[in-house]
Design brief:
The complex is a heterotrimer of chains A (699), B (436) and C (153). With 436 residues, chain B is of the alpha/beta class. Chain B has 18 helices and eight strands. In chain B, a hairpin with a 5-residue loop joins β5 and β6. With 153 residues, chain C is of the alpha+beta class. In chain C, strands 2-3-5 form a three-stranded antiparallel sheet. In chain C, strands 1-4 form a two-stranded antiparallel ribbon. At the A-B interface, α2 of A face α14, α15 and α16 of B.
């Protein structure tokens, strides 16, 4: 139990935890002390002087952001002295701040505007000439307008401390001080855009959004990001069915403050010129546009004519769509051959953890990473492949003194935060763990995180190692995409049905299907042709996709599907946390995969339930809640935007080990599988060309 | 051009030479001269004393920080925690940048070994083995002199390992600043010395606990360190008796401005301003009347002729609402335009503000712009009050004392010389133009 | 009876006198539509988007008019001025600026809200149409003429 101290704020008797900063203690008690430079979790600056408070027996006003509360402290944050101090500080700030609010992107959501409105004076006594320096373009996505900058140093700190990148610094002095990239005139960083989000004014603006619209003109949709398996929440700003920007000012997701370049700028595939918005049917060996009716009829006829079917699911579509897809395959087409591209061996992990209780779970959540006293990371390069995980680890190491142990085939950026790191030869990761045994045995609880390097029998060995540790050991397997975990949980596997239950009849795996003699394929939101040679013309191929990918090009019927920001549903991140995906906008011509599947099902005469296009996603979700192990989760929490862990543990999971099928696509911060190709912002930044994951990772 | 001693120290019978006693000797900066004149004897004496005895002796001397704040040196040394498993450091603040002050340069130019010895004694007092002399960037020529002195000391075994067989190790490094007034502030100096941007740190912790590289550090002014050998050699009581009861010893005082013999004088603390100006510095040039006195460098509030009988010591100055500061006495005659003085002072602070906090960064620049306009005849009645209000808005609200230093002279200028400001109104040309 | 007659005649005479007097007064009634009507300066007619002395559009696409509009009839799309294509004096300009006169109530709030005095009320009022589609005015219809002698772009 933390020690509480009593203090007096504005003549009110209050309590706070000992050592809390006065500004935080006041906020906890509902009293706002304004500040620009203070930001929770970042180092203290005491530079903006907005948080000055009057403390009894002090000759000068003190900064609330540097004063810990003490027993018996008497503080005023609301007297005449403070009002004057705030007013003059704001007046000082506005002397060189251009009053171009009408054109400034921040106008309407600017902390300086709010502060002046609340604490400032109506007029200014400043009649001298303002300073002016031209705006600078630091990268295609980050612009800096120095005169607007109020020098709160938040951007420098979030980049140094939060991102561990340190791309920003301070140049010149006095009133000419300005923020500069440490590379001089351009940024060389992760282009995460955190500096833009954290900027209280319009000094740092986003290249993708600047001068397009105003904040009050848009609607805001907070939804899980479409890219990696971390499940960050991104706030999409939508106007007229167009995403104007992605950011994280809502900060209500698992990711807290964090968002990487993919989350922030990687929404532009939605409006890509390469989107297909009309169905196509192959006629005379050419894909020609046609109506939906025609296309659905062609797909149904083709699938009906074939005797054997292969079904390939997606790591990007929703749980509802994947659940419905496996139902379509197993109950409709009556084929056992269903699979998807696997990047983590979840069945092996669930099997190894068989018989563990649901609470406390042996599966760790993303929050657990933030709070765990120690983390053991085997394989993977989270900085690029799971940026939020890397952020959480950095934050925990910095603020909570978490101990990080790394075993990897190459040196990764997180080694900078590690207590100990070991380079291991491929396949020898588990043996190398012995080196950390003594150190780990001293830790209270350990969260073990592993990439696609650890699979099959190695997972059993890893869990055996984890069992020898004294504390409560929890595990995380890292999978590539937004719903990689969901695809496994929903049973898009040849040997397992939903909830890791053995399938009635085991089918062929992905590689076997594509090499075999199946007569028809249904490929939903996947691009196996990128990896496997598919003989076009041999089988009848129905493809549902947003783009004309390699796989779509060999389709006999191509059905344009809606992107992740264009539909409702749920997705499960790699930590097993289920989140609700919200409908952000509609794109003309595209239909959701769920709707397309049910149209085909109806055309083929299958009775798979969920007939009403408007409510089918919810209906399917209700079915998932009822029937899939671990998914009987609190719908209310989900509907209000929380991430709810699905604990998919109990009993052994008899599965067919195929470690050779499990591999990460090793995306960097600037790639995102096939989807990433259509995100022009990701390839626009200079860093995209050079960035590579270290050799050997993810295989 | 390097000035000779006589240009800088004209000499006066009122002087009591303690730290400047060797300045007159030929080749005074060399180690030979130093050794021949009690050099390093204080160190050898201190080596035989315990740490507490050294600190006690310094406390007894009543020595107060000569950089301007006037905090008891002995007290400062005693704050260094004893049981910390960390290296300790001695840092000498030779970033002498206060306008009106040029005392440290004399010590570095004419008797650098005295400073090194003072630092070594401080090293003995807190068990520190590494000293840094942070020299103002503009004092390029002094860096050579100080570095030469350090080299000599190493060559003769007065620095390095096992000094003169006493078993005490001490290393000393001279480091050049890059020309920022702000780096004279102790925590900004430490940041700069660590290779970072020269901005002040949040305190507490104070340097005595977490200073250079987060280790316990004694940071004193050049003059403070230079005084230590004499105190150890002749005793704290002897030194204390030279000054007044609460302000022991002597102080290098720079008298500049419209006086007959401007220069640096080592005067006992407590000598009155009148005596300093009229007797030590030979009175006013052209026997004009005094208009204003800056007592301790440009950042101290100004005094008027009525206050001439104030003794020059820390406490008496504080009673008059100003500070003894670094001892940079600037005397201005009746033909001085106080608006221009304010402008010049503000131009300096606006240029030197580090930019860290808002009131100082924006306030100094606003005032500079306004005073420029005002002095050129573009002033309005309300500007006079605004100058005062803006200075008041900076006072006590900035991150470090630079804001206060800029605000205080403004407030006193408006308070004492409002008539000068009023004379500039209505588009009038500066009434003092051409009168000097 | 006689007095009644006299009274009536008197009343008629009085009435006719007024008529006669007014007959020679200048006409107040305007002869619209045969003659153009006269407006008070503050009459709120169809909006005009003003230009500055250099012929640049005053509108910087701040959206404040749209925000102030109670009938939600203003639609703007903003974009950035570039070196080659400078349309307004600010950092950005209105790529699209539509006013839907099906909805506009001529309240003048947009004019009040405008920080650059770009949108003003003109005196045009003859906008009745048989087709509502023609009542959505585009920027090109609303813009003031380029001033004489404006620098060529």
């Amino acid at each position: 139990m933390p020690e509480l101290v009593k203090f007096k704020l504005n003549d009110k008797e209050l309590t706070a935890e000992k050592g809390t900063l006065l500004i935080e203690a006041a906020r906890q008690n509902g009293v706002e002390i304004p500040a620009f430079c203070y930001y929770p979790g970042l180092s203290l600056q005491a530079a903006c002087r907005m948080c000055l408070v009057d403390i009894e027996k002090r000759p000068k006003l003190a900064t609330a952001c540097t004063e810990p509360v003490m027993e018996g402290m008497v503080v005023w944050s609301d007297n005449e002295k403070i009002h004057t101090a705030r007013k003059t500080t704001l007046e000082f700030l506005l002397t060189n701040h251009p009053l171009d609010c009408p054109v400034c992107d921040k106008g309407g959501e600017c902390e300086l505007q709010d502060m002046v409105f609340r604490y400032g004076a109506g007029g200014s006594r400043f009649v001298e000439e303002k300073l002016h320096v031209p705006e600078q373009k630091w990268s295609p996505v980050v612009y800096y307008d120095a005169p607007r900058c109020i020098l709160c140093y938040r951007c420098i700190r979030i980049c140094n401390e939060g991102m561990g990148v340190g791309a920003l610094g301070l140049n010149y002095r006095g009133v000419n001080s300005e923020i500069v990239p440490n590379k001089g005139d351009h940024l060389e960083c992760e282009e995460c855009g955190m500096c833009i989000d954290i900027c209280p004014v319009g000094a740092l603006t986003s290249g993708a959004y600047r001068y397009q619209t105003r904040p009050w003109e848009m609607t805001y949709v907070a939804t899980p990001c479409a890219h990696c398996g971390d499940g960050c929440k991104v706030t999409l700003s939508v106007r007229n069915n167009q995403i104007m920007r992605g950011n994280n000012r809502d900060a209500s997701g698992l990711n807290g403050e964090f968002l990487c370049i993919k989350g922030r700028y990687g929404y532009d595939f939605t409006h890509s010129a390469e989107r297909i918005t009309k169905p196509r049917v192959r006629k005379n060996d050419e894909l020609v546009e046609c109506t939906w009716t025609e296309a659905i009829a062609a797909a149904a006829a083709g699938l009906k004519a074939a005797k054997t079917h292969g079904v390939i699911g997606s790591t990007h579509t929703t749980n509802e769509e994947n659940f419905f897809l496996q139902k379509f395959a197993r109950q409709g087409l009556k084929t056992p051959h269903i699979d998807h591209r696997r990047s983590a061996d979840f069945p092996a992990l669930m099997d190894a953890l068989a018989g563990r209780p649901a609470t406390p779970s042996a599966l760790a959540t993303s929050r657990d990473v933030l709070e765990a006293p120690a983390v053991l990371l085997i394989g993977n390069n989270p900085t690029d492949q799971h940026p939020m995980l890397a952020w959480n680890i950095r934050t925990a190491v910095r603020l909570r003194k978490q101990h990080l142990y790394i075993v990897n085939r190459a040196s990764i950026p997180l080694v900078a935060q590690a207590e100990a790191a070991k380079i291991a030869k491929a396949g020898e990761e588990i043996e190398e763990l012995e080196r950390f045994r003594d150190a780990l045995a001293k830790e209270k609880d350990v969260v073990i995180i592993f990439g696609s390097e650890v699979k099959g029998a190695d997972i059993t060995k890893l869990v055996a190692f984890g069992d020898t540790l004294p504390g409560h050991t929890r595990y995380i397997a890292l999978a590539d995409n937004a719903n990689s975990r969901g695809a496994v949980d929903m049973g898009v596997l040849p040997d397992l049905g939903p909830g890791y239950q053995p399938a009635a009849q085991a089918g062929m795996a992905l590689d076997e299907m594509l090499a075999g003699n199946l007569e028809a394929f249904l490929i939903v939101g996947a691009n196996p042709a990128r990896r496997y040679l598919i003989q076009a013309g041999k089988a009848f191929v129905v493809v549902q996709d947003m783009f004309l990918t390699e796989t779509a090009q060999i389709a006999d019927v191509l059905l344009p599907s809606a992107g992740p920001y264009e539909k409702g549903g749920t997705v499960t991140n790699t930590y097993g946390e289920v989140q609700r995906q919200k409908l952000g906008l509609l794109v003309n011509g595209a239909k959701t995969d769920l709707e397309i599947l049910s149209l085909i099902a109806r055309a083929m005469g299958f009775d798979l339930g969920a007939a009403n296009a408007a409510t089918q996603s919810n209906e399917v979700f209700e079915e998932i809640r009822r029937s899939v192990k671990g998914y009987n989760i609190a719908a209310a929490a989900l509907w209000t935007g929380s991430a709810v862990p699905a604990v998919t543990l109990n009993g052994a999971v008899p599965h067919r080990d195929r470690p050779d099928l499990i591999a990460s696509s090793n995306d960097t911060l600037f790639t995102s599988g096939t989807l990433g190709r259509y995100c022009s912002a990701l390839s626009a930044v200079a860093e995209a060309k050079e960035r590579k994951n270290p050799e050997g990772i993810g295989k | 051009m390097i000035y000779g001693l006589r240009d800088l120290m004209p000499g006066s019978e009122h002087e009591v030479k303690v730290i400047s006693r060797r300045f007159d000797l030929p080749n005074s900066a060399s180690i030979d001269t130093y050794l021949a004149n009690e050099g390093y004897q204080a160190f050898l004496k201190a080596r035989k004393m315990t740490q507490d005895e050294i600190i006690e002796e310094v406390k007894k001397s009543g020595l107060r920080g000569r950089g301007g704040a006037g905090f008891s040196t002995g007290m400062k040394w005693s704050f260094v925690p004893k049981n910390i498993q960390k290296p300790r450091y001695i840092v000498c603040n030779a970033d002498e940048s206060e306008p009106g002050t040029c005392k440290d340069r004399l010590l570095m130019q004419f008797d650098p070994h005295e400073i090194i010895e003072g630092m070594m004694i401080a090293g003995l007092a807190i068990d520190a083995h590494k000293g840094f002399i942070y020299i103002r960037g503009e004092y390029r020529f002094l860096i050579e002199i100080v570095e030469k002195a350090i080299d000599e000391a190493y060559a003769r075994g007065w620095l390095g390992k096992n000094i003169q067989g006493t078993g005490f190790d001490f290393d000393c490094v001279a480091h050049s600043g890059a020309g920022a007034y702000e780096c004279g502030e102790e925590s900004a100096l430490l940041e700069s010395l660590e290779g970072k941007r020269g901005i002040p740190r949040i305190r507490p912790p104070f340097p005595a606990v977490a200073g250079l590289y987060q280790s316990p550090t004694i940071l004193n002014n050049v003059e403070t360190f230079a005084t230590v050998p004499a105190i150890i050699l002749k005793g704290g009581d002897w030194y204390h008796a030279l000054g007044t009861p609460k302000n022991g010893g002597t102080k290098l005082t720079n008298i500049s401005g419209h006086v007959k013999r401007p220069g640096c004088y080592e005067l006992p603390l407590g000598i009155s301003l009148r005596k300093a100006i009229y007797e030590v510095a030979g009175g006013m040039e052209g026997d004009k009347k005094i208009k204003a006195i800056i007592p301790g460098g440009s950042s101290t509030p100004m005094l008027v002729p009525d206050q001439l009988d104030t003794p020059m010591d820390f406490d008496s100055m504080a009673k008059q609402g100003t500070f003894l500061g670094s001892g940079g006495l600037v005397v201005m005659n009746e033909d001085t335009c106080m608006v221009e003085v304010a402008l010049r002072v503000m131009r300096f602070y606006s240029h030197e503000s580090c930019g860290w906090c808002i009131p100082c960064r924006e306030g100094t620049t606003w005032l500079k712009k306004m005073l420029t306009r005002f002095h050129a005849g573009g002033g309005e009645e309300r500007d006079i009050n605004l100058i005062n209000e803006l200075a008041q808005a900076m006072l006590g609200r900035t991150f470090c004392p630079l804001g206060d230093a800029a605000a205080m002279p403004m407030i006193s200028a408006v308070k004492h010389f409002r008539a000068d400001f009023e004379a500039h109104l209505n588009g009038n040309k500066c009434p003092y133009e051409g009168r000097q | 009876m006689i007095s009644d007659t006299l009274n009536t005649a008197g009343a008629i005479a009085k009435g006719m006198a007024t008529t006669l007097k007014e007959l020679f007064q200048p006409t107040i009634t305007e002869d619209y539509p045969f003659e153009p009507p006269n407006f008070e300066g503050r009459f709120r007619g169809v909006h005009v988007l003003q230009r500055d002395a250099n012929g640049l559009e005053k509108c910087v696409a701040c959206f404040l008019c749209a925000a102030a509009c109670p009938s939600n009839c203003i639609y703007i799309e903003a974009t950035e001025n570039t070196g080659d294509n400078r349309v307004s004096a600010g950092d950005r300009y209105a790529k699209v600026y539509n006013i839907d006169y099906n909805r506009c109530i001529f309240c003048g709030y947009c004019v009040e809200a405008c920080p650059t005095d770009a949108i003003t009320h003109g005196h045009d009022f003859e906008i009745a149409s048989y087709e509502t589609g023609t009542l959505v005015y585009r920027k090109e219809q609303l813009l003031a003429k380029e001033p004489q002698g404006a620098p060529a772009k």
